Every structure is written in C-alpha cells, then in structure tokens.
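Here is my example:
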Amino acid sequence: MDVDSFEQLVTDELDRLPDEMVDGLDNVVFVVEDRPEDGSLDLFGLYDGHALTERDRYGGGELPDRIIVYREPHLAACEDEDELRAEVHTTLVHEIAHFYGIDDDRLHELGWA
C-alpha cells in the first residue's frame, strides 16, 4: 500500500474512534512515517510528548505532541486490509492512551497492548 493510501486509512480509522477518546486531545498531531528511526519493523506507533498526567503548565507555545503511526511495520505484519485496519485502530487507541497517561502495563490489562 502506498503512502497516500495508508495515510487515508489512518485518517479513516481516526474518524471511527469514539468522540470521548479524541475530543480531549489538545495540541497533538498525527503523523505517518515509514519506519522508526532504528529501521526496525517491531514498533507500530509512538507517542512523542508529555502525557496529560505529567503536564504542569502546558499550552504556552509548546510544539504539539505527536502520535506517529509507522507504515512499513503495519504492512509487514498484516495480510489484508481488514487486518491492517484493525491493527491501525489498535495502534491509535494505544498511542492516544499514552497521551492520557495510561502506561503499557495498564494497556496490557485492558487488552490494547
């Protein structure tokens, strides 16, 4: 799947998330990149920023936090578009959870990691 098609798929899955999940996102941008910096195919996404629970005085001109979705790891792990959509959905929920301060241990308990 080319970059444009994958970006559209990510946008579609983001639009499908519940309003309660995305309405609280403040100063966050979503980015699609081919691979993580180390070139691995093991990481599907990354939250790059300060969780809501760690913010003191936030909002005074800081750069936006980023949620990065890695295209090539998703494509390597998924056999068809349905599986790809499901994995992108899980990645978005996982990274958005980090924005809200939910750590990996709790995500594992909830079945999102």
